[in-house]
Fold this sequence. Notes:
It is a single chain. By secondary structure, the protein is an alpha/beta fold. Strand 12 and strand 13 form a beta hairpin.
Amino acid sequence: MTPRATYRFQFHKDFTFADAEALVPYLDEVGISHLYASPITTARSGSTHGYDVVDPTRINPELGGEEAFRSLVAALRARDMGVIIDIVPNHMGVTGGENAWWNDVLTHGEDSEFARYFDIDWHEKLVLPILGDPLAQTLASGALKVEQADGRYVLEAYGEHRLPIRDEDQATAATDDIAALVDRQHYRLASWRVANDELNWRRFFTINDLAGLRAEDPVVFDATHALYFRLYAEGLIDGVRVDHVDGLTDPGGYCRQLRARFDAIERSADAPPGPAYIVIEKILADGEPLSTDWGVDGTSGYDFMEQVTALLHAPAGAEPLARLWAETSGRSADFAPEELRARQELLAWQFDAQLRRCVEAFVALAHSTPECDGLTRGMLDRAIERLLWVFPVYRTYGTGDAAPAADAAVRETVRQRVAQFVPPGEGAVIARILAWLAGEGPGDTRLAAEAVREFQQLSAPIAAKAVEDTAFYRYGRLLSRNDVGFDAARMSLKIDDFHAAMVDRARDWPAAMLATATHDHKRGEDVRARLAVLSEVPDLWRARVEHWLELSAPYAEGVGPADTYMLFQTLFGAWPANLDAFNAEGLCDYAERIVAWQEKALREAKLRSSWEAPDEAYESRCHDLARTLLDPERSGAFLYDMTVFVTRLAPAAAANGLAQVALRYSVPGVPDLYQGTEAADLSLVDPDNRRPVDYACLRAWSDGETPAKMALIKRLLTLRREHPEVFADGGYEPVALTGIRADRAIAFRRFGKQASLRCVVPLRGAERHLDRIDVRTWWGDTALASGEMLADLLGERALSVELLP
């Protein structure tokens, strides 16, 4: 059952199924067809997100358990609404002692029936990097103790970790020498600091708390998906969103298997008709296609978020903003050097163990065939490292003996990019590895499959951690272009290219999700919309920045200029609605949000601080600067100037926000509404974007004088409800514009058999708003191909969305 529109809820112990059930009438009134739930399976106690699943076979009791979930579904079904759930097939939470499968592996080692569930290299003991110090030091300090829990002896570390002890040691555990006892276990305790170098099991990105699952194993697939299939059979869910599909060994094979299993289920008689709705969390690079043979309905919407955000940015702002960034920060004007450096650093540091396992896999493959005689470990190491420096997408999808046709373009791009880094005489090594990725290399096919798997499961986290979670925090040309799935090197998207993408979407992915806000975004949709205005007024922004640098100079000593510049952007972009320069309490609250953002931004950048080794002195200087700038007693001039600037650009920012809404609810696809963003979304990166939502306020707005953003959402969702043939099945047709402002609006038609929708959305109109140019003067002779003048069609309206016969 394809949703008409989804609403994303982040469930946790303080927002349960019962809380969601109370909001079902509100969701129905807004026009939502499906609740889109964060993971509902049992996660670690107190989890605020649900992705650290410890038991995928039962619904989380902290959320209310299965009984409360059934009650929620019944309330939705009573209004002809449904549920899509987020599932996590790639990994499980393994710390805290709550994962029975992992505990069994620790107890029985490779002989555990669950050893096959996790991606572990059993050539040595399983490494557990949970200690604060090296093992010998930890033993000497007495931080490791033998305790009893549930009738068995366990090892307790720091009063926090409880680790099972082998069955063979239970009788003597209380009297044994503890060092000898630890040495006999199936795991090796180690300092957390060795994880990057010595970890011998696949983790999720760089998170030691999350262990990779082997979903390609049929036994593992069945065990981890049985609950989802039962819920679908009983009509309790209508589909799934698959988290981090690129972490799996064979994403395409997994998706096809998932589709086949759902399609084979006979649903209960009172359940809505199928097929199951399946979308995947997949980051697509610019120009990267999503394979149409995976059996999915599309992605969860990061690609649309990138496209619509880029459309709002003015291309003319790219060069002057890059120059301002470079002059102010002393860093590169271009993104490419930042990305390259981040990839090099993380490969050499956070992914060293995984890189070495990848190299070893290719060494074994090379040794399996005489054709690779003379191919040394060093050559393979250098080649793999350099390929990962320049890889343009998350991953390719080869299986060792074959590869999809779409991978060929990726390999060619890599071949061209890597050439400048290849040592003399070693180009043939690069060619050999690319051939293996293509399924065309020599050697043992089993070893080839393993080597290709290792490479592909390494390239994806490198892209995520080096680009999105490192370089994006180092490069500050314009922060609205640094978000999940975005191309920070590109400032804007041409209207014709946006049209082309929507035509493709209508043809291939009419049911893919359309998102502009998510639980993972780095800046809220209205923060990005406001920052986008700066691309239209770079000279005006430069003047403000230079003035603010002067005003902040007495307080900014010891704070890097790049961090100061990104602070200015963030203060401007996330400035709360109706916050003035004299509201001390409101400014104090805002300061603490900014400080939390600063801490994460500084540590993710890994330049002046990091999660592993926080530089608290430097962080404090940055926090002091933020708090000072937001203190009316000390920074009155700055606050006055900032509030004037925010107010001056507010009309242009609001227009961007409404344009974003109009496009999300009008183009082909299923629009997703992230919790609370029917109001202004001025959030920052998590946990800021997961703050509690004031639903009492939203319901009051919905019942009374509705703000423009919410009103537009409700209006478009009403149209979607009343004319499904236009939106669910209708095509997409660009409408040409002519005249002086033809590049300042986008127009298109969605058409069904009985009616069509015409949408005209102004773009990049900061000049008009700033100079208060008359509508007719601004649009001049700009007209639709039909001859209708935009000045007549729009008037003072922000946009035009009209149903036509």
